[in-house]
Automatic annotation (TrEMBL):
<keyword id="KW-0496">Mitochondrion</keyword>
<keyword id="KW-0808">Transferase</keyword>
<dbReference type="GO" id="GO:0032049">
    <property type="term" value="P:cardiolipin biosynthetic process"/>
</dbReference>
<keyword id="KW-1208">Phospholipid metabolism</keyword>
<keyword id="KW-0548">Nucleotidyltransferase</keyword>
<keyword id="KW-0999">Mitochondrion inner membrane</keyword>
<dbReference type="GO" id="GO:0005743">
    <property type="term" value="C:mitochondrial inner membrane"/>
</dbReference>
<dbReference type="Pfam" id="PF09139">
    <property type="entry name" value="Tam41_Mmp37"/>
</dbReference>
<dbReference type="InterPro" id="IPR015222">
    <property type="entry name" value="Tam41"/>
</dbReference>
<protein>
    <recommendedName>
        <fullName>Phosphatidate cytidylyltransferase, mitochondrial</fullName>
        <ecNumber>2.7.7.41</ecNumber>
    </recommendedName>
</protein>
<comment type="pathway">
    <text>Phospholipid metabolism; CDP-diacylglycerol biosynthesis; CDP-diacylglycerol from sn-glycerol 3-phosphate: step 3/3.</text>
</comment>
<keyword id="KW-0594">Phospholipid biosynthesis</keyword>
<keyword id="KW-0443">Lipid metabolism</keyword>
<keyword id="KW-0472">Membrane</keyword>
<dbReference type="GO" id="GO:0016024">
    <property type="term" value="P:CDP-diacylglycerol biosynthetic process"/>
</dbReference>
<keyword id="KW-0444">Lipid biosynthesis</keyword>
<comment type="pathway">
    <text>Lipid metabolism.</text>
</comment>
Amino acid sequence: PVRVLRDHADTAALAAANHRSALTAALLLLPAEFNEDEMYLEVAGLSYSGDVRQGLAENPRKVNDIVGAQLPLLREIYAAPLAESRVEGGGLASASATASAAAEVEAGQAGRTRQQGDAASSFSSSS
């Protein structure tokens, strides 16, 4: 979860792209069969997987505690990215298909952001 201190027009879109990317990474790391808890543990664990403090000074159950306490919020946050990842049969799309779809969405958003930036530059230079 993210607390926004100063809102920006792109904050929600950027957070949504981050959630899609986290879900895609988790799906790539998970085995072929997994349950909801395992998925959220993998998503939440992404933040700590490279943190050397995790093995030394942190509570070894930190990720489990976060997921356990925040499960309703995690379900809410990841409902849309999960829905986007579903295929007709009701299962999750393959990780590679999900990664491709996420890359296409993010590329489209980057293009729109550039276009908006170009429009703002044009407006600024003509003023």
